[in-house]
Each structure stands twice: as structure tokens, then as C-alpha cells.
Amino acid sequence: MSLDTPSSAGVVSPDQYVSDVTDAETDRFPEPRAHGASIQNVLNDLAPSDRDKRGLDRGTLYDHAVHYWRENVEDHDREPYVAAEPFDADWLPEDGRFALVVKSSGWKAGYGLGDDYSQFYEHHVMLRRIVETKNGTKLKKPPLALHVEVQPQFRDLVYSDGNPLECPHGEGTRLKIWTTWAEQPEDAETRAYDALRAVYGDVFDVDDQNPNSRRVAKAEAHVRFAHEKMGNVVEALDQSRQLVAYGGESEIEAHQRRQREGYLEALVESDRWDLLGFPDQPFNTGLKVYRRKDWHTLSPENPAFHPKLEAFFAGVERGELPHVSEWDSVMDHLRTMCATHARWAGLERSDLVEDDFFDGALAPEYEFERPTGRKHMLRQRYEEVATEVYREALKPNTTAVYDLMKVVAEHRGANYDTLVEETGLARSTVRYHVARLEDADVFVKVEKNPVLVAFTAPLAREEASDVLEEVHLDDTPEDRADRADDRREARHERQERRDDDLDRKTEEDADPDASGEDDLGFRYLAHVEASAHDLAFLRDRSELGERDVRVRADELPPDLR
After folding, report:
1. Fewest beta carbons within 10 Å, which of 199, 253, 261, 432?
2. How many whole angstroms separate alpha carbon 131 and alpha carbon 272?
3. pLDDT more than 70, % of the chain
């Protein structure tokens, strides 16, 4: 490649950047499996004539839950309290025994003001699997999970600061339902109603459900894939992170936790996936790669040894959550996101791993529209990275950044000890430049022990390597070693001068008139490792104050003095 000037690639606007992402092509992939789901709704089970009543006389499901706790549990030390054992339902696996447990926790609203404020409690009904162990019977959370939160919805409730509780869907009982492996929102609601009746009895009417209150609070779709493909999938997510951040500026929230062992390998969350060609959505979507914390202790024959790629609904910035009538649309978007990134990572049907809930390579075929233009977008992105590398490598008065990037490129990632040793720069200087280049999305810090500094992707490293070779054609490893030695020697001399200055300062303490402005530690720009650009960067970040940088004013143009 050739970059004659730092500006030759131009600055690409987000609109230009996504101009090639205008089409999609039909693709097929094994259908990602619905995983976690949460539905919330409100039962308008408070009759207007009972609004002024209290406790069980009010007749709501919430009041029955409070009454049950007071009559049976009585003390938080007895929580979780076994309320139904055994519990059976036609949606439960046939090869297990199950129970329901209850507990309570402080809620966000109550009665009264100031010292008279009395907090209400929400009540929880949770599914547990009965497991026989050598130490006796244990209750454990099963893979098919269920957790129902029972909350009050009364307009005379207030927050602790005195502000009234909002009840947008009317008064009565609010239910938040959390479950797994639910293909439809009705699956989650049916499970919740079965559990509530098993604990509290037939004390509520489903017909009291406010149709508009039925909202989607959580949805997920995933595939489990072979451990050997982990690097490919993490890189595909990281590329999407860079592309959405690049086109959407600061509109993306991204977290990269690349660990040898751990739960979360990569996570990207944004509301601007349309920048990659996905249909625009009124909600945020995330993608993550994860697996069990103890995966490394398991046999590869155990499905839990292998990771999952999951797309998930990540809430809304404003307004209400999607209505349950939009469930199929939400899930179709998540499945498309998951399947598309699986394709971008090079996953094939044979790479998928079967478990108790996902059929792996035998999963039914899913047809979706996969956005096109990604390869061009990545090339354009990395050319922008290369331009930034060019600017940094040709900074006047210093080769420090050039040498840092050269070490990172040649080592395909380097830790701080290596960077300090091979550049001769102080560790603080290395950290400063790494932070700058990370802000510019040239470097990324990989969270290993020790931390590894690398280019943002292999293709970015290749582009950067070409640029670094081009800007200093005659530079050799011996030249870089000599510069490193010179920097170490210069640091040693500066330290000796500082020691001398300290000794002189000690002597001058007895004579305050002997010290002057030039004794404050100022140096000519040519005598320090920093460039004017570096000083401006530190000044913009308030790491240098107004009295930390001097300028020879008589050489400035009159209008700048």
C-alpha cells in the first residue's frame, strides 16, 4: 500500500462509511435457540370499591402473597422457604423432581413520609430442582429456570423521597417473570401462573391482566459452538465493535474481557447496528461470547466446555418496552444478529455443539437476510487506522511512538516490560502513549496477566506494519536498539541532574532569595521525549496545568501573544 501524506486517505464521515451497506443477501444457518426471557405485566385486580382497604381485604394477588408470607414464613432467616414440594407441571422436564421456594425483599416504594415511611416488600416465587447428595437433599436452580416477582401497584404508594409511585397500567399486582427456554411470551406467563397457583391457590383471575401492560423485558438467542473456534468468534465481535464505534462515534458501549479462563469473553452493546446494515430497531441489542466459569475443568465431551454466541435484547433508551405482540420481530432480529456473526466468524453447521436444549448441527434451518459490504467496511476502517499510524510515526522531534508501534507490530502484541526494554522509554511514557493510541482505536489492551498491548485486529497490524516500513525505509533493528540505549542514558543523566538540583535546593533553602523561576524544572522541548502534540493532548486532558508549559511569546504572531 502507499500513503504519501497523512491525509491521503481522507476523513470518512459516518454517512460515507455506511454508504456501501445498502443491501443484504438471503442466507441459511442452523436456527439460534431462544434462551433467557422476561415478561412483565399487570393484573388490574384491585376493585375501585376496595381501594381504601388494607391487607387481605383488598383482595389482590400481591396482598395474598403478603398474607402467605406472614402466615407461613414469618422470618427472613427461614428464607428461601419451601412452599410447594413436589411441584409438577406439564412444561417441566420428566427426568427430575422440583419444588417452589419463596422469599421477600425490600421494594422501592411504601407508605408514609420521613420518619413515618414504611417500606413495602416484593415477593419472589422461584423454581428449584430437588437433588439428592451424599450430604442430604439439596435444592438447586435448574437449567429450565423460573423466577416470578410479585409487586404492588397502588397509587397511594410513594418513594422514600416522597414522590408518588407511577402506575401507568393501572392498580393491582405487577408481575415480573424470568425464565429460560421459552419460545413464546405465553410460555413464560403460563409457567408463572402455574407456580403462583401452586403457592397461593386460585386467588387471581388471568382475565384481570391488562393487555397493554404485557411487555418484553428480556430476550436472547444463541448457538453453542466448538471451543476451537473461540478466537474466530471473538474477533468477529471485535470487528463489529470497531465498525459500529467508527461509524457511530461514541454511541456504542463496548466491553472486551479476553481471558484465558472466565465467564465473559467479549461483549458489544449498541443501538446503532444499522451502521452494519441491520434493520434499525427502537431498542438496544447486544452480542456476547461466554461460557461457564469452570469450563476448563470439564471434558471436551461435556457441552458446557464449549462457549456460546448470544444476541440479546438490551432495553430501550426511552419510552416503553416492546409489547409481547412484537416478540416474534424481536426474536427474528436477535436470531439474524446471532446467525450473521456466526457466518462472519466462519462457523459451519459442523462447528455447532449439541446440548440438552440446543440441537447443534441437527438444529432446523433458519433463513435470514445477511447484510453485505462488511469486508469493504473493514478494509476502509483499517486504512483509517493506517493513516493514524502514519501521522504518529512521522511526529516531529521524536521517534518514540514509531518505536513503540514497531515493537507491538513485530511481537504481534507486547507487554509493558517488553515495550520499556526495547524502546528505552520510561514506563510512564509508555503508558501515556499506549493510552493515547488506545483512545485513537489503534491499540487495544488485552486483559491477560500481564496486560498485552496489541493492534486492534490482525488486519490493522498488517496495515500498520506496511506503513511503519514505508515511513523509515532505512531503519534497522540496530538503529532502534541504539535509540533505546540513548533514551536510557538520557534518563540516567536527567536523574543525575535532578539529584544535583535537589542537593542545590537543599542548600538554597537557607537563602530563599537565591532561587528563581528557572529552577522549577523547565526544559527545552528538544530535550524531552514529549512532542508539542503530546503536550497539547495532556493539556486537553487537564493533566498539565496553565503554569506547566512555557511559550516564547516574543516569537509568536502578534494576534497570538
Report:
1. 261
2. 45
3. 81
